[in-house]
Amino acid sequence: MISQVVFLILFGTAVYFFVKNIGKIRRNILLGKDQDLTDNKAARWRNMALMALGQKRMFDRPVSAFFHILIYVGFILINLEVLEIFIDGAAGTHRFFEVYLGDFYFFLIGFFEVLALGVFIAAVAFLVRRYITKVPRLRHPDLEGFPLKDATLILVIELVLMGAVLIMNITDVELQSQAWLPVSMWFAPFVETMDASALHSMERFAWWSHLVGILLFLNYLPFSKHFHIITAFPNTWYASLNPKGKFENMASVQQEVTLMMDPSAQPPDGYEPPTSFGVKDVFDLSWKNLLDAYSCTECGRCTSDCPANTTGKLLSPRRVVMQVRDRLEEVGRNIDKHGNDFKDDKDLHSYISAEELWACTTCNACVQACPVQINPMEIIYDMRQYLVMEKSEAPTELNGMFTNLENNGAPWQFSAMDRGNWAKES
Ligand code: SF4
Ligand code: SF4
């Protein structure tokens, strides 16, 4: 009875804080501007099935895809066993489904054990890639500090959770079921000399460790890059279906120009002149850009494919996305403390420098590389628009072109009157 009460308190507290933190993230995402991305639903479901469920882009790099799929499939299917742990915790039963499923139960548990071993091996492989072979994109300066610790902690938690599953089975088999399990059987000799009380304590310790580990992990997710296991699904559903490289027309600019060029033009009903152009802070990004920021896995595929980064420029598209999330989190904390009308002296440009923004070639390689269809380039050029249109801060190379556009209606230094000269006979 006491253990049921402890379980219910732990479970209720964990769910309460998880829901509360998810609510804050939802609020932060909705600080972004409206964008309707609900057209062509069939294509969107198909895209999500391919990109999030099927992890299509991951397979551009087969080694990491293989280990990632081991963790992904293992984690999803082992949750069926977690369901039993929760039922046992609430009802005070032990292996609730065994009575109902008979021999099939142990077939399932054996299958979960193999998956747990797969997850264990994959987590070790990922640690090796980070700390021993030091894959450059996983030890990039972008990840200094919390991001590297975060990635490591996630892998360690996965090792602990999978270890706890295996210890539960090893001790339980020895204690009572004597079932043949494909992974536990190899470890049985290590515990066969232990008496029943020691085995029982070990089994309970592993059971509680697994349970508490899952609840802690659940509550760590909203603060971690691992949150992508949730957001990857909506992020791919709402991803742009447009061909890459298609620039959206800036409706606000077009409207202003139309009104300026045609004195007889009437503004549409309810028209409000824009207060600013481009992106100064997270509020000027769309809600989808902000969902992107919460979906970043920090894998660095975008940065390792970015021609600006690989030729030594300051720009890293991964860092751009990470900085959007950091700034958004900061804004969220300010709202929690001071309310919606808080003022601080920072904006997104305090996090991402003009040098980074102007290093972008707008090649779309980062968009193509991203396994969860994040678009760092959109953030970059919207921030550039702010620099040009609001601050008149453009690199000198561009200023000549802007003058030509203004004077000649074309980027070249020729009068519009001379455009047809090329066709004249010499
Ligand atoms: S679009 Fe810009 S940020 Fe993205 S890969 Fe190309 S140069 Fe890098
Ligand atoms: S933006 Fe995409 S490719 Fe770049 S680090 Fe994040 S998840 Fe990886």
Topology record:
Layout: H1 2-29, H2 41-53, H3 62-91, H4 98-101, H5 103-131, H6 146-177, H7 184-191, H8 196-220, H9 228-237, H10 251-261, H11 287-295, H12 301-305, H13 307-310, H14 317-338, H15 354-358, H16 365-369, H17 376-389, H18 396-408
Helix pairs in contact: 1-3, 1-8, 1-14, 2-9, 3-5, 5-6, 6-7, 6-8, 9-11, 11-14, 14-17
Structural notes for this entry:
This protein is mostly helical and 426 residues long. It folds into 2 domains: 2-237; 251-408, Orthogonal Bundle (Fumarate Reductase Iron-sulfur Protein, Chain B, domain 2), CATH 1.10.1060. Helix content is 63%, strand content 0%. It has 18 helices and no strands. One iron/sulfur cluster binds next to helix 12 and helix 14.
Number of strands: 0
- Helix percentage: 55-70%
Q: How are helices and strands ordered from N to C?
A: HHHHHHHHHHHHHHHHHH
The overall pLDDT, averaged over residues, is 90
Tell me what portion of residues adopts beta-strand conformation.
Answer: under 5%
Largest sheet: none
- Look at the helices and sheets and give the structural class: mainly alpha
Briefly characterize the structure:
The chain is an all-alpha fold and 426 residues long.
